Predict the 3D structure of the following.
Amino acid sequence: MQVTLLNPYQIKNIFKSWGEFAATCYDTQQEFAEKVGNSCYQDEHYSGSRTEYIKFKIEGIDRGVAEQAMRHEIGVRYNFIDDNTYDENPMNIVKNLKSFRYVDMENFDYTIPKTIESIPKALNKYNKLMEYINTERIQIKDILVQNDINEKQAIEDANYSLPRATNTSLVIAFTLEAFIHYLHKRLCTRTQYFHRQIAKLMKNEVLNVLPQIKDRLVSQCEYLLWCPEGTRSCKKYPTRDMLLKGMK
């Protein structure tokens, strides 16, 4: 897995741009913009921060995890044009995931769950299954081409057989507010392993340019000092019910 922050300069200066936008609300001179942005952050007044997006390119993740990441509808996705260019026009924000039609026809990369990887017998069967899917996929494509189906269409249709484990690339963006919420949820110990790893990599990318927000980029329980997971809590922090009982 690899996570790349696409706009580090903008994020490094997010408090200044935040304050420039929010200064009118607070009847403050633009020269104090960064101070205004910092103050809004401390008070969790996020409306002014919604003019900026934290943009990532994520590579080497399985299709299932990518689709889970895209459930966070309060974030936004930017259209990725090619390996080095993405469309910054806010009017063209889309859900963006590398299409299955572009997966290598000769082979495909896939993710192996840790439990399967740790048991040789299970790993052997898993790898054989992937090899079988790939072999049959190629044969389906060849049969379609032999029956006068355009090769591009044949590849696209044969790739319907690809499993959820197929690795893909994703471009995703969040407002600061949405990103904090995302990490609150995805740094939780109950989050799927690979998704939590992605969240950690995203967190590190952002903290490299904006270390001031380290206190917010934590699991929700660590931020609240109580766990909202109820009976499913890992017990690192007390649940809300436990706190309320302790107050009686």
Remarks:
- The CA atoms of residues 13 and 45 lie 17 Å apart.
- The first strand starts at residue 2 and ends at 5.
- Residues 107-161 form one domain.
- The first helix runs from residue 8 to 12.
